[in-house]
Amino acid sequence: MTVHHDLPGQADREMGEPLAIICGGGTLPFSVADAVIRAGRRVVLFPLYGWADPAAVMRYPHHWIYVGQFGRLRRLAQREGCREMVLIGTLVRPSLRQIRLDYETIRAMPQVLRAFRGGDDHLLSAVGRIIESYGFRLVGAHEVAPEILVLPGVFGRRTPSERDRCDIERALAVLAATAPFDVGQAAVVAEGYVLALEAAEGTDAMLDRVANLRRAGRIRSAAGIGVLVKAPKGGQDRRFDLPTVGPATVEGVARAGLAGLAVVAGGAIIAEPARVAELADAAGVFVAGVEPGGCPR
């Protein structure tokens, strides 16, 4: 029988109840951990084997887990006194062969199998429901570390041109149209022409694809024209998988020969913003937070 615990309120958080952070890849889980620690709250990391950076993990209290070890996660988080959890970081959809099944995962297998029969948002929401069935409360990383959200404006010295603004608006319209199909959260548009939509490969690989198309002469527009735009899917659970940009995104935009990148302010996360601005200036590209309806003039 599953035991359900009372969920914590704001008073519990202020008393210093530790936060469990389930860590995928990249630097963002550690940015979130540092922000929570600065706010005076203890964290316990649950890094995922094969995704989280072992060297970075060592700086924090932690317990390694494999994807699918719901029982181990529950036992260790309860032992640490955690009742709130954050799931953050890159995580390529695992195959069933990559999942390490413990007893509680086996009990949840009907739910796990159903979760795999859909897009990423469907999968993450199903995982969230399983975790919450153990009495934990899943919160968005932006709820415990609001400073990671992108604000309106630019990072660095460059700003979008009028042509860039039109491409941003076209990309946002494309992403709004494809959102019901639970595909990617990014598109590349140049002079009104859709060059790429993100699918299972992720943003970085999509940008590599654009770079290869440019080298092959398949892109008509000159280098320095075109934008990458990232936006949350309409109706998605924003506790999971908000669009994220960071230094690697800026480097990919530069390799792809684009003018810059834009993300929806308040609906996207930025990792290492100072480094993002530095790289953007060095590469001569813009990074902008825009309103959901488009880039203001």
- Beta-strand percentage range: 15-25%
Average pLDDT over all residues: 86
Here the CATH topology of the largest domain equals: Cytidine Deaminase, domain 2
Number of contiguous helices: 12
Radius of gyration: 20 Å
Low-pLDDT ranges:
1-15
Structural class: alpha/beta
Helix content: 25-40%
CATH homologous superfamily of the largest domain, by name? LpxI C-terminal catalytic domain
So what's the oligomer here?
single chain
Features:
6-stranded mixed sheet; disordered N terminus; 297 residues; 12 strands; 37% helix; 12 helices; Rossmann fold; alpha/beta; single chain; 2 domains; globular; Cytidine Deaminase, domain 2; 4-stranded parallel sheet
Please provide a written account of the structure.
With 297 residues, the chain is α/β, with parallel strands linked by helices. The protein folds into two domains: 10-146, Rossmann fold; 149-290, Cytidine Deaminase, domain 2 (3-Layer(aba) Sandwich). 37% of the residues lie in helices and 16% in strands. It is built from twelve helices and twelve strands. The strands form three sheets. It has a six-stranded mixed beta sheet with strand order 5-12-10-8-6-7, sandwiched between helices. It has a four-stranded parallel beta sheet with strand order 2-1-3-4, sandwiched between helices. The protein has a two-stranded parallel ribbon with strand order 9-11. Strand 1 (19-23), helix 2 and strand 2 form a beta-alpha-beta unit. The longest helix is centred in the middle third of the chain and has 17 residues, at 162-178. 42% of the residues are buried.
